[in-house]
Specification:
Blueprint lengths: L8 H24 L5 H12 L1 E3 L20 E4 L4 E8 L11 E3 L12 E5 L2 E4 L13 E5 L2 E5 L12 E3 L4 E4 L13 E3 L4 E4 L13 E3 L4 E5 L12 E3 L4 E4 L14 E3 L4 E5 L12 E3 L4 E5 L12 E3 L4 E3 L12 E3 L12 H4 L6 E3 L22 E3 L6 E2 L2 H4 L7 E3 L4 E2 L14 E3 L6 E2 L3 H4 L3 E3 L4 E5 L15 E3 L10
Parallel strand pairs: 3-5, 4-6, 5-7, 6-8, 7-9, 8-10, 9-11, 10-12, 11-13, 12-14, 13-15, 14-16, 15-17, 16-18, 17-19, 18-20, 19-21, 20-22, 21-23, 23-24, 24-25, 25-27, 26-28, 27-29, 29-31, 30-32, 32-33
Antiparallel strand pairs: 1-4, 2-3
Subcellular location: Cell envelope; Membrane
Family: Belongs to the polygalacturonase-inhibiting protein family.
Keywords: Leucine-rich repeat, Membrane, Repeat, Signal, Transmembrane, Transmembrane helix
């Protein structure tokens, strides 16, 4: 260091001493952190020994004698020199063949200062690792999207210190153990996408600190337990894709002040949609599709001004549909009810952020040219099948650069197909049973899914990989996969 000529000898000496002690401290820290606690190292290496395949090398840095606090996925409390959390996560969407697989070694219980274990998107097999109850500091268990199986043991009730517990995306069977009700500190409980059976235990109403409850994608049945009154902090409730029957329980009405996500779709719920849902002023997502709801949609729905995702499809709902006052809907699906909307609602037109619009079989009678959304840029999916829509789809489809799919079968659309200019993201097109004419352009046959059957198309079909069902019922199409064209 170059010292200023204005510095006194005392200042220079002090500076040198500071540098000396800083270096000494760093060297001491490095030396003392060269290896982690023997129990932590042994527990982690035994865990590694239970992993039979690690093709992407997630655990390649786990080498005996090196500082385990520097290993991939390991985080330490450096004051205690103990392992605090373990995170091992795969990325199957990038390379499905690179997923780590094996079992969870019980010697992982040696990590006596572990507060969180996060094992996600792996092929870890075996039963629930009950030995985790021997770790007194464990607060967070996220073992998600693996292949654990068997029943969730009643002994889970001994882990009363848990703050979050997720076994979502495994293969667990049997009932939800009633002992979970002893985990009164839980803020998150996620048991979705397993094979759990039986009813929701009444005792779950003791989990008064829950902010997130997900039991979706199981085989739970019977009426939804009327247990929700104590859940004053709940923000997300996911019960979709089960076998629930009966009405929506009244105690759900007590969740109105804070609930943002309510997902009850793909069950066998019946009766009328309760009026109290219109009081959920913070509701972001409401999903009631594929049930047996009947009657009208409550007029109170006009109060859901913050709703972004609304799915009421595949029920038996009837007119009139309330005039919503939504400031910006992102996803709307009213398909396959008994609605006679007449036209696409104005509050849908005005949304600047909508990406998914599905109004199949909604009794819409209008010219498609009259559908002039304030913004088409964000549209990903549009389904207007089974209505009485006339006119041309050219203007709409050619102005939606990010559109992925357009379904409009069973309408009265009439335009020249050759005028289509599809964006790079476009993959799915169904214009079957309309009055579309002209030739089949090359851009159309390069899609992933296509149905142009029963229109008035003519001419030779460009080379494609589709079945004949994609082109049958037209006036004079020829070429593979239909009959060969006649050469003059």
């Amino acid at each position: 260091m170059k010292l200023s000529h204005f510095s006194s000898p005392l200042t220079s000496t002090t500076t040198i001493l500071i540098i000396f002690f800083t270096i000494l401290t760093l060297l001491h820290h490095k030396a003392s952190g060269a290896t982690c606690h023997p129990d932590d190292e042994a527990g982690l290496l035994d865990f590694k020994s239970g992993i039979k395949s690690d093709p992407s090398g997630i655990l390649k840095t786990w080498i005996r004698g090196t500082d385990c606090c520097n290993w991939n996925g390991v985080q330490c409390d450096y004051e205690r020199k103990r392992v605090q959390s373990l995170t091992v996560s795969g990325q199957p969407e990038e390379n499905p063949n690179s997923i780590l697989s094996g079992t969870i070694s019980p010697t992982l219980a040696k990590l006596q200062h572990l507060s969180g274990i996060y094992l996600s998107n792996l092929n870890v097999t075996g039963p629930f690792p009950a030995f985790l109850s021997k770790i007194p500091t464990l607060q967070y268990i996220y073992i998600e999207n693996n292949m654990l199986s068997g029943q969730i043991p009643e002994s889970i009730g001994n882990m009363t210190q848990l703050d979050a517990f997720s076994l979502a995306g495994n293969r667990f069977t049997g009932p939800i153990p009633s002992s979970i009700s002893k985990l009164t500190h839980l803020t998150q409980l996620k048991l979705g996408d397993n094979f759990l059976t039986g009813k929701i235990p009444e005792s779950l109403n003791k989990l008064v600190n829950l902010t997130f409850l997900s039991l979706k994608g199981n085989k739970l049945e019977g009426p939804i337990s009327d247990i929700f009154s104590p859940f004053t902090n709940l923000r997300s409730l996911e019960l979709s894709r089960n076998k629930f029957t009966g009405n929506i329980p009244n105690s759900i009405s007590t969740l109105a002040p804070k609930l943002t996500y309510l997902m009850l779709g793909h069950n066998s719920l019946s009766g009328k949609i309760p009026d109290f849902l219109g009081k959920f002023r913070k509701l972001d997502t409401l999903e009631l599709s594929w049930n047996k709801f009947s009657g009208i949609v409550p007029a109170s729905f006009k109060n859901l001004t913050k709703i972004f995702n609304l799915d009421l499809s595949n029920n038996m709902l009837v007119d009139p549909f309330p005039e919503m006052k939504v400031k910006g809907i992102e996803s709307l699906d009213l398909s396959n009810n008994k609605f006679h909307l007449g036209k696409i609602p104005q509050w849908v037109f005005s949304s600047p952020i909508i990406f998914s619009l599905k109004l199949a079989n909604c009794g819409i009678k209008m010219r498609l040219e009259d559908f002039k959304p304030s913004e088409t840029y964000f549209y990903d999916f549009i389904d207007l099948s089974g209505n009485e829509i006339t006119g041309s789809a050219i203007g709409l489809l050619n102005s939606t650069e990010y559109l992925v799919g357009f379904w409009a079968s069973g309408n009265k659309l009439k335009f020249d197909l050759g005028g289509l200019k599809l964006g790079k993201r476009f993959k799915y097109l169904d214009l079957s049973r309309n009055e579309v004419y002209g030739k089949v352009p090359l851009s159309v046959v390069e899609l992933e899914k296509l149905n142009l059957s029963y229109n008035h198309l003519c001419g030779e079909i460009p080379k494609n990989n589709f079945q004949a069902s994609a082109f049958v019922g037209n006036d004079c199409l020829c070429g593979s996969p239909l009959q060969p064209c006649k050469r003059t």
